[in-house]
Amino acid sequence: MKITASGGTDGASIVLFWPDNLPEDADKVLNDDPIALVESMRDQGKLIWFHCDGDGGYSVAIFVRSDVPAELMANCGDQQTIPNLVVRGVGYFGGMEYMFKRDATFREEHPNMCAPVSIPDGTYSARVYRTTISDAVYDEWLLKHAGAEAKTYHDIHKFIAIGAVAGVLATLGTFCYVDEYIWYGIASITFVFFAIAVWMPRSERYKRFARARDEFEKEYPAYVVHLT
Predict the structure, then answer these.
(1) What whole-number distance in Å separates Cα of residue 58 and Cα of residue 11?
(2) Quick one: which of 103, 130, 135, 198 has the fewest CB in 10 Å?
(3) pTM value?
């Protein structure tokens, strides 16, 4: 069985946790001293605390009593082992700041940042990996699944989006310092860049690229968990 999930963090900490594993006073403790609670739960084998580079989005692939594909395993490293990982009830993958025992209000306000994960209850031996995916592997995947045209289209969109942001800074920065005709010219160009940046993601080429990118994250996630 393979299970995939995506989540994110604004606190540079990603976890896979099970509310049923947390103590009764977890909601209060999470407000007062979340690190201490997470360390304790990790040491008891009741959650996974992933090594994390910083804020942003992350993905995980969980292989339950099935082998990790060789092509994915070749990109796995930074292993940690949890001899007895206790799985009870529905789990959640995402930022530590979204953890809860009963009060899931914050997670419900940001559902994309902490996704539910359903693993059969039990006690597992867990091996946890981080993946290191080269740009070459990523580019080859996108070319194969989205096509060169869609990838080029996406690269152009990135350039235009950067241009739009630069245009805003230039428009604000030159408001009091240049002739009004020059300023209106800068503002007009910025508006055009913004309009194009908003329109391009609606095209089929961009959507095809986005689908390929999402599929890549499922096949080559940031983390791999092997449960046996």
Answers:
(1) 13
(2) 135
(3) 0.77
